[in-house]
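Title: Comparing notes on inverse folding

I've been comparing how different people in this forum approach sequence design from structure. To keep things fair, I'm posting one structure and asking everyone to reply with a full sequence. Here's the target:
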């Protein structure tokens, strides 16, 4: 059964994702006693978005919703990439700038700028965060054969937050492990923002 989300802005209207955990690929069409003899391939759906013209992706299972930019309340004495908090139906949600976290220029607000609301795991507890993106692209499906391991660039640069490099439409898509983008210290600091009110 298909479950769809729709949203406007952030690049226009489009259907988003059909939820499913995996698909089964028939192996040479062979069937025996009514059972498909097939290799079971994990097919994962990813939401793609852009940061500084580069395409990133996150597992749709981690995505709660996508928002147009509301009023962001600044919070003092937090890292630069923590842009503030928003009020999401009565809940305080920290907003983080992935551009700044990745050493890019600060995200500039345009008609396509969005907040991707994701759920991350902090010390075995779930937390809800908002991640700024230049624009949201589409939901795609990729099989393991389409994903290569992330690059290893010496011992001093972290790349563990990359699940891998996906190949889609003749270009690479950087697949994020959103739980590992921020350190536990940073995420614990984000949890402390829950006490901030407008």
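Reply #1:
Here's my take.
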């Amino acid at each position: 059964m298909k479950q769809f989300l729709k949203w406007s802005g952030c690049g226009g209207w489009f259907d988003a994702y059909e939820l499913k955990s995996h698909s089964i690929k028939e192996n040479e069409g062979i069937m025996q006693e009514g059972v498909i003899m097939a290799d079971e391939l994990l097919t994962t759906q990813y939401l793609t978005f852009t940061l500084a013209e580069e395409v990133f992706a996150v597992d749709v299972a981690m995505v709660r919703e996508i928002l147009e930019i509301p009023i962001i309340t600044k919070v003092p004495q937090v890292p630069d990439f923590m842009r503030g908090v928003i009020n999401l139906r009565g809940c305080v949600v920290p907003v983080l700038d992935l551009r700044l976290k990745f050493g890019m220029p600060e995200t500039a607000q345009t008609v396509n700028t969005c907040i991707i609301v994701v759920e991350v795991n902090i010390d075995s507890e779930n937390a809800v965060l908002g991640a700024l993106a230049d624009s949201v692209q589409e939901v795609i499906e990729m099989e393991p054969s389409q994903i290569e391991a992330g690059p290893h660039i010496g011992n001093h640069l972290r790349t563990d937050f990359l699940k891998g490099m996906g190949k889609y439409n003749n270009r690479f898509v950087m697949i994020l492990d959103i739980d590992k983008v921020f350190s536990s210290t940073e995420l614990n600091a984000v949890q402390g923002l829950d006490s901030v009110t407008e």
